[in-house]
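step: validate -> pass
step: tokenize input -> pass
step: predict -> running
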Amino acid sequence: MTTTVEAGRDETVPAHKKLAEHAYRIRRFALRMGEVQGQGYIGQALGYADVLATAYCHAMKFRPDDPEWEGRDRFLLSHGHYAIAFYAALIEAKIIPEDELETYGSDDSRLPMSGMATYTPGMEISGGSLGQGMTIAVGMALGLRLKNNPAFVYNSMSDGELDEGATWEAAMSAAHHKLGNLIVLVDINRQQADGVSHEVLGFEPLADKWASFGWHVERLNGNDLPAVVDAFDRCRNLPEAKPRVILCDTLMGKGVPFLETREKNHFIRVEQDEWQLAIRTLDQLHAQGAGQ
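step: predict -> pass
step: emit ->
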């Protein structure tokens, strides 16, 4: 029997309350994978978990047992180095079995340390060459429209990709073609490989820039689940034929206080004895929150 996960399902419980549990589990899966290899872009995974939980456990339509189902919403991981976060979301969505997380980064694993479509069910593109996801997303959204397929295309990208000219060429093209089936998610954590994002190349006022390109723009705290849910819902239900972007200001390390306050850089180092401490801390804080 094939199960289709539909957007906007089960309204008997407020969406953000259910999603808090999903986001917690995504963070925990990511930490467990990080412990396997002793490394990973865990700061980004913790910071982006609320957005991923909303995408996979609230907004998107897909079939866990048929990742290539033609009616699915497409999620493009342009920032391929976020693979550890994305795998955690795929595990929570039951597209990948939980026991596979123990293989993360190992030889012959379906979970390589950078996302590759040839290896992983549910991975639409091989990301990592930053700025390329947007261009692929525009072509994919155009193709779906030509086939009268109502699916959405989500392009997930980092704020560092705003430095790439291809990003803005694609943004201009998407508005020109009135791609109402394209939703872009930008993780604004203000860190990239060469340093603090705004010091490398300033991108503010960012919301105004996207709006000037003809996009519907939402900017919010990406760790505020009610706000994230509302933004996703508005973007899916917008009547205008125009592309939509959700700009998510996130906190790297969110959910584990000693990682939230660790000196920020593109790659937060976690010592081997800190992985279990991080998991215990996450569990304790989640239990306290659930009991309130």
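step: describe -> The radius of gyration is 18 Å.
step: cleanup -> pass
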